[in-house]
Design a protein that fits this description.
This protein is α/β, with parallel strands linked by helices. It has a six-stranded mixed barrel.
Length: 383
């Protein structure tokens, strides 16, 4: 129970912490990180809800069992009361039998006094005395046995009544505790379900922002492919841009749009007499050119833009820049490295510095630190 309360409190705190972060001004990276956090938390919530549901089922089974025990105990009490009545009747009959025997003895003059001594001293002879004494012993023994048997039965009956009532009280108390615990767990279940619903809404909102931001990365290429005025070279470049950025997208709807546009673009190329396999036109003009100090990094999970870092010498790689120098989302050409998207940042990447993503630490070590020429081909939304 304490564990469930702790988990619930932790998730409430987490929800309070992450709710204000869903803003349109957030970076794609921030949104993706929050999205992934919520996804992980939802999985954890599902796991804890399953645990709570299991505990609820167990408690309900216990309540049912307790109520069955209470019902059986009440039946036992009822049978005990019936046994009491039966025993009381037996006591009455035994007392009547004892009184009857004494009356018969009195009527036959075998016993005419109030005690056995009178009976014995009225003996006519020694043999008569011993005969009467033997008869008295038998009667006394029978009386004692009868009375003791009745007392024993009464004592056992009283003990049984006490034990059964104690048993019922304990089971009733246990059942009340179980019902209270069940209510507490059901309340936790309701709280967890409400929290899950809030997180699901939050996830949907963030998912929409991620989709919006990823669409910005492909919108220019989509517009080129959808335009009836695009040349073969423009279509070919747009197709290449989509193919390069596609591995870095994560939203199914955006991926579907990109694939649909790729198919459409390749069909258009064939229609106008070009082949999708024709040589890709180069970027012969640049907006800006920089001489920068380059370093290398690896083992990244997500870039600042929320894209997975990629090293693709034949396509589009990831690099970290100072956004105040090169805006995020810009398409670059780094001499000696290849085409890249400025999708990441770093605390040490300030001013005229650039960090190139590599697939391994060995490649980073081999690259070291060197000067490179960086060409800014186009800004986000222009390629």
């Amino acid at each position: 129970m304490k564990k469930i309360c702790f988990i619930l409190l932790a998730f409430v705190i987490l929800l309070l912490n992450i709710t204000p972060t869903v803003k349109a001004t957030n970076s794609l990276n921030d949104n993706k990180i929050t999205f992934n956090q919520i996804s992980d938390n939802l999985k954890e919530l599902d796991s804890n809800l399953a645990q709570v549901n299991k505990e609820i089922a167990s408690l309900k089974t216990q309540v049912t069992s307790n109520e069955g025990t209470i019902s059986n105990t009440e039946e036992e009490i009822k049978r005990n009361e019936e046994n009491v009545t039966s025993l009381q009747n037996e006591i009455v009959k035994s007392e009547e039998l004892l009184n009857k025997r004494l009356r018969e003895m009195y009527k036959s003059n075998a016993y005419g006094g109030v005690n056995y001594l009178d009976f014995l001293f009225k003996s006519d002879s020694l043999n008569d005395f011993f005969s009467k004494m033997q008869a008295c012993n038998i009667i006394i023994s029978q009386d004692k046995t009868l009375i003791k048997g009745i007392k024993d039965k009464v004592s056992k009956l009283n003990e049984s009544k006490i034990l059964i009532n104690e048993k019922k009280e304990k089971v009733v108390e246990l059942n009340e505790e179980t019902k209270n615990k069940l209510k507490e767990v059901q309340d936790k279940q309701s709280d967890l379900a409400e929290l899950k619903n809030k997180m699901s809404v939050e996830k949907i909102a963030i998912s929409g922002l991620i989709e919006e931001n990823e669409l910005k990365l492909i919108n220019y290429s989509l517009s080129v492919i959808n335009s009836s005025d695009s040349s073969g070279n423009q279509l070919t470049q747009a197709i290449k841009n989509l193919e390069d950025i596609l591995p870095q997208l994560s939203t199914p709807s955006v991926i579907a749009k990109a694939n649909e546009a790729l198919t459409q673009g390749k069909e258009k190329l064939i229609t106008i007499g070009n082949s999708p396999s024709d040589n890709i036109p180069g970027d012969n003009s640049y907006k800006k050119t920089y001489n920068m100090e380059a370093t290398a990094y690896s083992d990244g999970i997500l870039t600042r833009m929320g894209l997975p870092p990629v090293r693709n010498p034949n396509g589009l790689s990831s690099v970290a820049v100072d956004p105040s120098v090169i805006p995020l989302g810009s398409k670059l050409f780094v001499e000696g490295y290849g085409y890249a998207i400025a999708s990441d940042t770093g605390s040490a990447i300030i001013g005229m510095k650039i960090d190139l993503y590599m697939n391994s630490s060995a490649e980073c070590f081999s690259f070291g630190r060197k000067s490179v020429t960086v060409h800014l081909i186009s800004y986000q939304g222009e390629w």
